[in-house]
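hiii so um. not sure if this is the right channel but i have a protein structure encoded as tokens and i wanna go backwards to a sequence. like what aa goes where. can anyone help
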């Protein structure tokens, strides 16, 4: 029987690969590395992906330094697949897990399928950028979410026949879990929100969460938005606030981390999202919400060009929010489709994966566009 190892270690990977696992059906062999190890952040996401009882294949990976994490996963996955060799390995995005899994499979001669291939920030200070470059160097099938992602790959010399425009499975993953009106009201009540005019914020990237001065400025800017702010607090951010006694303004309601369904319930109800997450940049385009991206750079310029997001430094949050919340701008967003695909990416990715195994042209429905060099 065909066996496809679908490898993930973090929450965004679990979310985006859930539809791919479903599309592969009996061929899927989910592998959870345990890179994100906090049960409060992981267990509910595994349940949503349809693998609620999946245990980490590599215990002890979470919480280690980046170099140790990649090396331990590389050796661990190599040993795992020498003992039980899959026919192909699917990785997603730009995590340490995806980097290690892609390398392990490549060195063992196993075809590597890269979901969300071709993202580039051109910022080598971003650890994810290095992971993307490594994965692109060893992948056999590149599943690009957008035309721009595909172009980046082609310009870098990636063989045109291996680059496929599939869309991003975040579109179907988000649509599948969009909350009912009852779920939305319950999530609002649990967060202590009494009306729809509020801001939902998430801050977790090292450039923000590990710098107490930068984090304090972000929180101060959130307090100036003139609306209640709900801040589900990532453990990393909570640790910095506690260690350095970073003040949390009274306008901000801190909650525990949210599962994906409750996060989307709040995101669909709020007026504005402020975040440093990569995945949230995609999700807001599906649910039609404006987003201030608090980062130094982004690998998802499509969300910016479509008008859903603005990139801002901490001191620029208030100004970016005012621009996004202009009534004319919001009216345009209401009629703007997501630039990340049509909701059939997982079907295309599954078809391409099986085709790579059997060395046959992919026969997916809808058809899979294959980009050719000009």
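sure thing!! here u go:
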């Amino acid at each position: 029987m065909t066996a496809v190892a679908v490898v993930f270690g973090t929450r965004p990977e679990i979310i985006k690969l859930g539809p791919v696992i479903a599309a592969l059906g009996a061929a899927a062999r989910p592998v959870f590395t345990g890179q994100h190890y906090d049960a409060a952040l992981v267990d509910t996401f595994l349940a949503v992906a349809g693998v609620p009882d999946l245990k980490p294949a590599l215990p002890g990976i979470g919480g280690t330094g980046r170099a140790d994490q990649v090396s331990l996963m590389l050796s661990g996955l190599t040993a795992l697949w020498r003992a039980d060799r899959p026919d192909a390995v699917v990785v997603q995005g730009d995590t340490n897990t995806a980097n290690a899994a892609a390398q392990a499979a490549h060195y063992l001669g196993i075809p590597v399928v890269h979901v969300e291939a071709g993202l580039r920030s051109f910022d080598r200070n971003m650890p994810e950028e290095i992971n993307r470059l490594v994965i692109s160097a060893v992948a056999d099938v590149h599943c690009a979410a957008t035309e721009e992602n595909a172009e980046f790959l082609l310009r870098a010399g990636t063989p045109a026949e291996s680059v496929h425009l599939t869309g991003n499975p975040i579109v179907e993953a988000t649509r599948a879990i969009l909350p009912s009106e009852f779920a939305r009201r319950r999530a609002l009540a649990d967060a202590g929100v009494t009306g729809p005019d509020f801001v939902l914020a998430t801050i977790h990237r090292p450039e923000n969460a590990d710098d107490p001065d930068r984090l304090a400025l972000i929180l101060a800017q959130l307090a100036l938005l003139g609306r209640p702010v709900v801040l589900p607090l990532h453990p990393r951010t909570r640790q910095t606030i506690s260690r350095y006694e970073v003040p949390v303004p009274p306008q901000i309601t801190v909650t525990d981390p949210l599962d994906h369904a409750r996060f989307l319930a709040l995101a669909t109800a709020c007026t504005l999202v402020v975040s440093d997450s990569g995945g949230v940049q995609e999700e807001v385009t599906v649910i039609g919400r404006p987003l201030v991206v608090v980062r130094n750079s982004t690998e998802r310029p499509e969300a910016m060009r479509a008008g859903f997001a603005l990139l801002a430094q901490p001191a620029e949050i208030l100004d970016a929010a005012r621009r996004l919340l202009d009534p004319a701008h919001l009216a345009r967003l209401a009629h703007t489709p997501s630039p990340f695909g049509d909701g059939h990416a997982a079907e295309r990715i599954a078809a391409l994966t099986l085709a790579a195994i059997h060395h046959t042209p992919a026969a997916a429905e809808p058809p899979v566009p294959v980009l050719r060099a000009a």
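oh and Residues 363-374 have pLDDT under 50 and may be disordered.
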